[in-house]
Amino acid sequence: MKRIPILLTLLTLSLALIAPAGGASEPMIYVIEVDDMITAGTGMEITRGIDHATDIGAAAVLIEINTPGGLVDSMEGIVSEIERSEVPVITFVPQGDRAFSAGAFILLSGHIAAMAPGTATGAATPIAITPTGTTPVENKTVNAYAARMRGIAENRNRSTEVAEKFVTEGLSLTAEEALEQDVIDVVASGRHDLAAAIDDRTVNVSRESVTLHTKDAIFITQQPRFAASIVTLLSNPQIAFVLFLIGLYGIIYGLKAPGTYVPEMIGAIAMILALYGMGMFSVSTFGVVLIVAGILLLIAEVLTPTFGVLTVGGAICIVLGAIMFPQEPFMPAEWISDFRQTVFALVILSVVVIVAGLGLVMKTRRTKPTTGREELVGEIVRAETDIDPEGTVHIHGEIWRVSAAEPVRKGEDVVIRDVDGLTLVVEKKKEVGDPA
C-alpha cells in the first residue's frame, strides 16, 4: 500500500515533463484585430490582449492593423504598451488593409513589422483643423512627432530616415517598397505565411534576446469586450460632440420646464459621457466657449426675438466652435470631411430644436389656462333668459346663474367679467356705434 503514493508521484512528474514537450510542438499566437480609427477603446483592447497573451504563455502577439489614423494619446499608449511587452509583438497589415497616420507609428513599433502584398503605410504628417480647412501644423509639432517616429524606428533597427519622412513629407509606401527601404521586416500573404517566415528569428524583447518559434502555430483571436466598444464609441470626437449638445439641450429644457426631471437627467448623463469622451483627445477651449456662446445666443433669440439676428450669430458660433473642437493631428482626411458634414447637420438641427422647441415651451407657458375662473373671464355668451339683475346663460354644456348691473334681454350677447362663487358677473356686449 505504501507504494501507491510513490507511483502517483512518479506519474505526476512524468506528465509534467511530457506537457511542455507537447505544448512546444504547437506554439500559440494571440491575435488582436485593430479595425478603423485608433481610439481609447483600441488601447484598452491591446493592453488586455498583451496581458492575456503573457498569462497564457503565447509565443507571440499578432496585432493586425487596418486603420486610417486616430487619436494621438491612444496611439502613444499603444506604442508604449508594445515597448513594455514581455511577449514578442508582431504588427501586421493584412491584405486589402492599410496602416496610415497613427497606424504607421504602431506598425513600426512592433518587434516584427510585416505587411501583405498590395497594402500601404505612412502618411503620418500632423494636420490642424481650421475654419477654412486643414493645414500643416507648426514646425515644432512636426519635429516632435518626427523625433518620436525616428525613436521608434531606431529602437527596432529600422530606417530612421525613411520613417521620419512619413511625418515630415507625408511619405506613403507599399509593402514591397517598405521592405526594400528597411521600414518593415517581412512581406507575407497571411497569418500562416507570416508565422513560417519569422520562425527562428531573434528579437529584443524587454532588453532580452528571444528566438521566435512560430512555425505551424495555432492562432487564437481575441474577442472584443463590450466595455472597450463603449469607450471606442465615446472617444470618437463626433460622438462626444453630439453628446455635448444633447447634454446642453437637456439641461436647458430642464431649467425652462422644471418638474419632470427627465430632461435634466438625460442632459446630465449625456454631458458626463461627453466630458469623458473629451478626455480621450485634445479639446480646444476656445472651440468649447464658441459652442456654448452659440447655444446661449439661440436661447436669447427665443426669449427676446430679434427676427433671426441672434439665430444667425448662434449658428455661426456653433459651426466655428465645432470645427475647432477636435485638434487631433493624426485624424484621417475622410474623418474630417465626415465631421464637417455632421457639424453642419447638427447646427441646422440645433436651430430647429432651440428656436421651435423652446419657442413652443414659452408659448405654452404664456397660454391662458383652460380651466377654472381664468377660462371663463372674457368669454362671450348668449343670454338664455332675461337678466335683470339675474338670469342664466349656457356655457361649455352647462347652465350658469349670472348677474348684471344693467338689464339684458334674452338672446343678447354678454361678456363674462368675473366669477363670484357660483355666479357669473356679466355685462352687455357693446356693439359698434354704442355709446361708451
Textual characterization of the structure:
It is a single chain. With 436 residues, the chain is of the alpha/beta class. Helices cover 50% and strands 19% of the residues. The chain has 3 domains: 201 residues, 2-enoyl-CoA Hydratase, Chain A, domain 1; 131 residues; 56 residues, Nucleic acid-binding proteins (OB fold (Dihydrolipoamide Acetyltransferase, E2P), Beta Barrel). A hairpin with a 2-residue loop joins strand 7 and strand 8.
Coarse morphology? elongated
Structural class: alpha/beta
**Which regions have little confidence, pLDDT < 50, spanning 5+ residues?**
4-10, 15-24
Helix count? 15
In short, what is this structure?
Helix content is 50%, strand content 19%. It has 436 residues and is of the alpha/beta class. It comes from Candidatus Methanogaster sp.
